[in-house]
Amino acid sequence: MVYVKSCLRRADNFMYIVKKNAAARKAFLVDLVNEENYQDLAEKENIDITGVLTTHHHYDHCGGNEGFRRQFPNIPIFGGDDRVPGMDRRVKHDEVTELADLKIKCLLTPCHTSGHVCYLVSNPSDESDTPVVFTGDTLFIAGCGRFFEGTATQMDTALNKILKPLPEDTLVYPGHEYTLANLKFAAFVEPHNPEVAAKLKWATEQRENGAFTVPSTIFEEKATNPFMRVIESESIQKRVDTDDPIKGMERLRSMKNQF
């Protein structure tokens, strides 16, 4: 199974260490949040870093890129936006590459930023292995990112046309620990959804015990994430006063901004 170590940085940012399995040495990193000593990190984790995946150019997701580049001048940094510092591998939508013996499919999801990329990671030597997707600030657990550089149409495409069709067991690793706030909003717009209530209870217990709420799955997001449920949920349609997925997406995001 693809091994992912979730590393909390700042108050609620995630950086991820990814390997083919727990015993593997070859690894890559996702979203270097901070300037830090990545050589020390490699020694501590007993890994050989083969690359860096950056979801988008916001500093809290690539603040460590330039320092990493100084420490590892020959290791590639992938991204989808020329504003990503240190990037030397700009990716395209549906481009497939390989790092640390893992297959990486690059999914461009512009909206939060115009160059946002999600990365779908799978084990090419075992198709039955559970895939994982790193969603940055596009898809959060039970939520989505703000539309800073895009539109509701773009976010609908990202969530419901690109990410929603992924295999339901795909593990979802977002850029932030925003789950509790997102689930409280989900419960507000869809108060009779038992899946939302159960996950809110679970997430509350996780955070009270100092544990993370990552990962989610595509299956769970389809059941609990209001931004992926406008078409399915009459309750949400009543809240946003429309059954149109684009208008619903726009109104949900506006409501969440004020929640």
From TrEMBL:
UniProt-recorded Gene Ontology molecular function terms: hydroxyacylglutathione hydrolase activity; metal ion binding
> Does this entry carry the keyword Hydrolase?
yes
Q: What class of enzyme is it?
A: hydrolase
Domain Metallo-beta-lactamase residues, every copy: 12-176
Q: Name one GO biological process term.
A: methylglyoxal catabolic process to D-lactate via S-lactoyl-glutathione
The text of the family note is: Belongs to the metallo-beta-lactamase superfamily. Glyoxalase II family.
Tell me which EC number(s) this protein carries.
Answer: 3.1.2.6
Q: In which pathway does it act?
A: Secondary metabolite metabolism; methylglyoxal degradation; (R)-lactate from methylglyoxal: step 2/2
CDD domains xref list: hydroxyacylglutathione_hydrolase_MBL-fold
- Which species is listed as the source? Caenorhabditis brenneri
**What is catalyzed by this enzyme?**
an S-(2-hydroxyacyl)glutathione + H2O = a 2-hydroxy carboxylate + glutathione + H(+)
Matching entries from HAMAP family are given as: Glyoxalase_2
Q: What is this protein called?
A: hydroxyacylglutathione hydrolase
Which cofactors go with this protein? Zn(2+)
InterPro entries in the cross-refs: Clx_II_MBL, HAGH_C, Hydroxyacylglutathione_Hdrlase, Metallo-B-lactamas, RibonucZ/Hydroxyglut_hydro
Mind listing the UniProt keywords for this protein, alphabetically?
Answer: Hydrolase, Metal-binding, Zinc
